[in-house]
Amino acid sequence: MPAFELTIVVLGVAVLAGLVGSLTGLGGGVIVTPALTLLLGVDLRYAIGASLVALIATSSGAAATYVRDGLTNIRIGMFLELATTVGAICGAMLAGVIPTSTLAIVFGAVLLYSAWQAGTVRRERTKVFSPTPFARRLQLSGVYHGEAGDTPYSASHPTLGFGIMYGAGILSGLLGIGSGAFKVIALDRVMGVPFKVSTATSNFMIGVTGVASAAIYFGRGYIHPALAFPVMLGVLGGSTLGAFLLPRLPVKQLRRGFALVVGVVAIQMIVQGFRGHL
Amino acid sequence: MTKDDHQLEILISLTLRSGVALAVALGVIGGVLYLSHHGTDRMDFGTFLGEEIPYSTLGGIAERISGPNEGLGIAQVGVLCLLLTPISRVALSIFGFLREGDWVFTAISSVVLAILLFSLSMG
Predict the structure, then answer these.
(1) pLDDT tens digits for B29-85?
(2) Please, how many CA atoms are within 13 Å of residue B26, restricted to the half-sphere of its CB?
(3) B36 interface with A at CB cutoff 8 Å
(4) Which residues does A117 contact at the CB level (< 8 Å), separation at least 6?
(5) Which ipTM value was assigned to this complex?
(6) A4 CA to chain B: closest CA distance, Å?
(7) Counting Cβ atoms within 10 Å, is residue B117 exposed (0-12), middle (13-18) or buried (19+)?
(8) Reported pTM
């Protein structure tokens, strides 16, 4: 395809991916890779490279706002980044030796799980965790300024959280995704951090985690600028549009619908992986 | 959250925002240049060329900017700026925690920075 047409098509697909990613809360990157490979026949490695770039852009942009508003817990984020960055480097190394068809299957499975997570209604956590001495020593605590007033919180189970984050880092490096779903689970369910703080802190960590593997991918030629620039601009545009539409749309019903679409895409990815087409 | 922490938050927020803005600006400028000169070139991302593409090294990018494809060279510099954004954020935090006299977190941030630099050196 001529460069001009291809760029326009990629830009369009990226806008859609950013929009769906932001409306489902899955993040733009996780949808853009299957869209590029399944719809446009882009090599999985180029798709992963471009999606990592888009991921770093969207998460950094969103993190800027969350950090300014004091929603992000920088200490908890920084502590857990020790685990996610090492995991991401391991993941990127693994990606170099795993066949792309296997990568596609793993990608599909992770996407399927994330879609299921996004589609199910989140239950409010009622159990309050008490901080371990280790968490207290690291000052892994903060105050959440919610609608119901200020709630102090403290992270518990830092070691288990650390372990899950290492796994999230591996997935992130292996597949070029933010693995935000897993990060939020570790923060919210395991460490007992308030959900909004968990989301903001997870977002904060995605950029640094992404760079840890993107730097390696860059040297391996995964990041082709002709694909990376329209994907980055498109996903940024799409997720900005999503953030604008989010409070104006019936999110709950939409979430279900989109999660279903993403689930179908995930299965498609697995099938194509098994057929060896990706 | 202390007052110093809040100053650090503002600074980090600014760094992230300007890094993304710079990457977007370079992406747009580079992209327009690329499409205006090479818009009719046939492009195919179906085959992975790996390190054969000239955009995986600083030298390769510099060479592109100076001649054959300045647009994509500039766009790739934008990508590099984007990669440097979270790295600068971590570097900034080291100074923030150092000023607060928080040695544990100064050390943690330094290790994270070291991991990122290690990754850069492998790329």
Answers:
(1) 999 999 898 877 888 888 888 777 778 778 778 778 777 788 889 999 999 999 999
(2) 22
(3) no
(4) A181, A185
(5) 0.90
(6) 5
(7) middle
(8) 0.90
